[in-house]
Design goal:
single chain, 5 strands, 13 helices, binds tryptophanyl-5'AMP, 7% strand, 333 residues, two-stranded parallel sheet, three-stranded parallel sheet, mainly alpha
Amino acid sequence: MEDKKILFSAIQPSGILTIGNYLGALRNFKKLQDDYNSVFSIADLHTLTVKQDPAILRKNTYELAALYIACGIDPEQSIVFAQSHVSAHAELTWILNTVCYPGELSRMTQFKDKSLKHEDNINMGLMDYPVLMAADILLYQTELVPIGADQKQHLELARDLAIRFNNRFGETFKVPEGYIGKSAARVMSLAEPERKMSKSDANLNAFISMDDEPQTIIKKFKRAVTDSDNKIIFSPEKPGISNLLSIYCAFTDKTFEQAEIEFEGKGYGDFKVAVGEVVASVIEPIRQEKNRLLTDKAYLDEVLKNGAERAERLAYRTLNKVYKKVGLVLRKR
Ligand code: TYM
């Protein structure tokens, strides 16, 4: 690999992704991949922390591999792999568990939210999830982690664990920085704009999936919840319209001021159709390319195999260093 800083990020294959995942993460992966040695993982082990249908999880894993590539990630240049294919992730999680305190994990906002949502399955994995995420990041001596705003607290924990480990055992891990995009770092639900847009929302009209066809996208935006005063301006008092403006600006690279001027004097109806059309024009070619890639499983298997081999080499370099630092006898090969 060239002598560039390392970038790592991952996405869970827990369903068909939304434009929240696209704007908060995927599109930044593509923007940044040339400037870094980039490692993109499919966080399949994370996905097991809530109940999954095994066949659907397998399907979603291929979906995500295809989507990464369809969004412009070049698997020759960057590393694309499944987290479960590189066992160092689970191994480093164990070591990091020994420097992480339960109080740090029970305080995590996402753990609290998910515990409420999955009351019947508050398992150890759900609580330990941020430690696995820290292991993902720290294994690669990562310097930059592009994420949406909802993952910021987890990144802070990764930094804390790196610093704590380094203080106790000597310099071992790079302390990573987060990269949270300036626009649309938190895309909100179209049905309840106070809540994050999420791929696991039971209300299908609340999110735009990366698999939605243009007509569906436009229909969903037409139904998006807004207020009644019909003015297209960005304001905390107008969470629905503000969310649509953020989406519009992120997809068109326009500023809020430019968009407000463009739609001055127009009604919500016109604006919603314009947002839908812009989103559909970006998503549709990605959807088609993803579906084309999905017909070639052999290619996707090859990408994942190659990615895992390259990731493994980097990961075990760090893991061996960690094992040595904590006093484990390294296995002779
Ligand atoms: P996940 O799979 O929930 O989401 C993947 C990425 O999409 C971002 N995102 C959003 N951004 C803007 N608006 C939204 N509504 C929205 N919803 C999701 C997330 O912030 C994330 O960047 N734990 C992670 C996956 C992970 C990871 C890692 C990330 C595992 N290991 C190491 C970075 C580094 C997760 O569940 O993301």
